[in-house]
Amino acid sequence: MDIHYMKRNKPTIIEGNFLKSSLADQPFPRDIQGDICLLRIYIKDGSIQRITNISEAEKDFQSTEAVRINIPQNQVIVPAFVDCHVHLVLDGIHGFRKFIGPVSDEILEQRLNSVIFAGVAAVRDGSDHFNTGIQAKELCKRILGSSTPGKEEPGSEHLPMSCFPEVVTTGWAIYREGHYGAFLGRGGIREVGEVRNKIRQLNEAGVDQVKVAQSGLVSFNVYGETDPAQFTLREMKEIVSIAGDYNLPVMVHASSDEAVRIAVEAGAHSVEHGYFVSPRTLERMAEKGVSWVPTVAPVAAALKEAESTGGQQGRVNPEVLKKTIQNHLEKIQLAHQMGVLIGIGTDAGSPGVGWDSGYWQEMGYYARAGLSVETILEMASRNGAKILGLHEDMGTIEVGKKPYLISIKAKSLKDMERFQGPLSVFHCTG
Predict the structure, then answer these.
(1) Model confidence over 305-336: pLDDT tens digits?
(2) CATH code, 52
(3) Which of 181, 252, 305, 366 is the most buried (most CB within 10 A)?
């Protein structure tokens, strides 16, 4: 795979095939026929300056000084992906089963680089009590602010330097004392009156969103079983309201229809996981504009492990997991039909969910749910950028946005279930 580093102080011209639906709702180009269009985009000072047909003359862009990148005809350029739910503190092997931390900056750097190589330009960290998301965000700023690109080889724009995704943080989660979430937060709350101080501390720590644990995990051996909701509707409304005082969106970990419904009616920004949600609650989700991040990969990984080991002494029933996954895929299809804004999140770091292939596997499950490739790519980019609050910079290819781009095999547009990642990643440097 190629990493194309684009210097902010040097114009760049990219020519190749672009997916028409990724060009957003801009009037250009007017004469495109079909789903793919051959275009030239002009990049300078870290943003897209102009988009033209190949046949149009290059004007006022210092074309003689610009770096030119030509993408082969068997590839298609699309917006880079967004992972709406990761846990940077976890190793992808043991997960929270053997939870240790904090992690070193060196390990964090490796994980963030793996994310970029997967074609993911932004992640939202799903919290832990070490505040690893903030650590990662500060690490990126520190390295990118102090490092300089490595020595170039003549005619090459491939630089041996670290590259990182945008990191959206939630700090540590809010959860009720004695319930699920001890490793996600820093002490549970006993009454909702404690929430204002918790959110004030999160705001001071510099988080971008607030994470609330509203339920536990789904059962791996009893179909449909989940923990009861941790907060009542009144309490959840209070949490959302207080977060709103600090302009902080609320993402809610919730499985069971009751837990999801409370989050939706309270005005949460997004629901994470959402196993066993009902059609009526999905309908309310669409009506109220609440986003959904289904995270199929961690349960699918548990199924794969159970099938290879024969279960874990009765704690994992493969047939229960198969039924749970199938139900979830059906709900994803239904939610899409109802108009729910769905983003792709992997729960990366959970057992069996890697920092690169985990994203491609999640996309594959959406294909199994019956969604079109174009829809999946839109969820992976445009929807994810909106959920993370990064839609002004990424998610679509249009003038004024940053060139968060990747190229994929053209034949991937016909088969996303077996997608194996990008062929090229475009990354802006200082």
Answers:
(1) 888 876 555 688 999 999 999 999 999 999 99
(2) 2.30.40.10
(3) 252
- Which DSSP string do the residues of 263-309 spell out, in sequence order? HHHTT-SEEEE-TT--HHHHHHHHHHT-EEE---HHHHHHHHHHHHH
Q: Are residues 63 and 157 in the same domain?
A: no
Q: What's the pLDDT at 128?
A: 94
CB atoms within 10 A of CB 142: 11
User: Rounded to an integer, what distance in angstroms lies between the CA atom of residue 414 and that of residue 374?
Assistant: 9
Domain around 30: 2-79+397-429
- List the strands of the sheet with 291-293, edge to edge: 210-213, 250-254, 270-273, 291-293
Looking at residue 27, its pLDDT comes to 54
How many domains does the chain fold into? 2
Residue 430 has pLDDT above 80, yes or no: no
Closest CA to 17 of 419, 405, 414, 416: 405
In angstroms, rounded to a whole number, what is the distance separating the alpha carbons of residues 161 and 144? 9
**CATH number, domain at 179?**
3.20.20.140
* pLDDT of 410 strictly over 70: yes
What distance in Å separates the CA atoms of residue 12 and residue 48, rounded to the nearest whole number?
9
